[in-house]
Amino acid sequence: MTFLTENPTQLEFQISPDLAQQCWLHSQSQPSAKGQWNAYLNQICLQTILPWLQAEYEPQASILLNESLLPSFWEVVNGTALNWGNKRLIIIPEKTIDTSEYRIPQEWIDVPKLVGDYYLAVQINPDDLSMRVWGYTTHEKIKTSATYNGIDRTYSLDTQEIIQDLNVLWVVTQLNPEEETRVSVASLSAVPATQAENLLSRLANPDIIQPRLELPFVLWGELVSNDNWRQKLYQLRQGELESNLTPRNVAANISQWLQNAFEESWQSLDSLLGTNASLGFSFRNASEENDTIIKKAKSLNLPNGEVLLVVGLDTEADGRIGIRIQLRSLSQEEHLPSGINLKLLSSSGQIIQSTQARSQDNIIQLKRFKISSNTQFSIQIELDDFIVTENFEV
C-alpha cells in the first residue's frame, strides 16, 4: 500500500498487485458473482484503510464483525463497519467513476444493529490499482437529506451534500467527539425461529441473485443482522447446510393439478386408504365438499406416527382458485397428536392463519382461502421441534 498525496483533502492510496491478487483469490469462495465482487472490493478497502487508521488516528480501531463472519455479510450487502473510538465508521466501496452521488445500502441506515456514525465514500479503480476516499457524511445527514430508492433499497446523497474535505472529519472527532451523528431508527421485530428457517430455505435458491431484495425489509433486516441466521444463509447458498434445515421441497403446481397432472407424492385418498376407508373423509362444510373438484392427499411421517395432509381445490368465476387444507389422522378411530399445528404461510414466510389440534381431534382444518395466478404459499405442520413444510405455486 502506498499513500498518495496529490489531493491534500482526500485520501488516495496505491494498491499493491500482491494485495489485489490476494483479495481476488479470497473472494472466489463466495457463492455468487455479486458476493465475489463485494468481497473483493471490501477486502481491498479493509486491508488498506484499517492499517492507515490504526497508524494515524486510532490504534484500537477494529472491525465491527468477527472477521470470520465477513464473507456471509459481503455475500448479501456491500460495506464494512469499523469501531473507531466511541464511534462507528461505515465504509462503502464502489468501482464506479461517477461521484455525483453517494449510494448507501439501506441495511447500514435502517437496521439498528448496523447503524453507523460516519460513512466514508470510497472509489476503487481495479485497473490502475488505486483507491480514493472522496468524502464522508453522517447517519443524521443521510436520513434527513438523502433520497431513498425502494427498487434497490439504497439511500442516495448528492455530492453537494458530501463533505469532501476529510480533514474536517479528523478535526471534528478530536474537538467535538460527542457530536450528534445519528438519528433514531425504528426497531425491528424478532423473527420466530420457524419463520426464519422457512425464509432461509427460500433464499437459499441460487436463482435468487439478490436475497436482500426478496423479502419485506422488516424481515430481511432482522435476518441479516443476526449472525447465526446470516451465516446459515451463506452456507446454504454454498450448498453446505441443506441437510441441517427443513428439507426444501419442490413446490406442488396447483395449475397443473387442474390439468390432472400431479406430483407423485400427492395421491387420491382411495389409493392411500382404500375405497371404504376414504368414504368417511370429507371437508367439514358439506357445501364445500360438494364444490370441491379435486382432492389430493399426502402422507407425512411424524416422530410418533403418520398423518395425512389433504388439499381440496375448486375454481371461482373470476379465475381464482379456492383451496381447503386439512390435516387428518389415518382413520377416524385415531387422534392427531395433541398440540400439532397446521399453518398457512405467505411466500415471505409470514403466518396467514393457523389452527392447533386438541387432545381428541382427528381432523383440523384451515379456513378456505382463494389465490390468484403467480402466487406462492406454504403449508407448515409443526409438532414441538419437528417441522414439515409443503410448498405450493399457481
TrEMBL record:
<dbReference type="InterPro" id="IPR014951">
    <property type="entry name" value="DUF1822"/>
</dbReference>
<dbReference type="Pfam" id="PF08852">
    <property type="entry name" value="DUF1822"/>
</dbReference>
<protein>
    <recommendedName>
        <fullName>DUF1822 domain-containing protein</fullName>
    </recommendedName>
</protein>
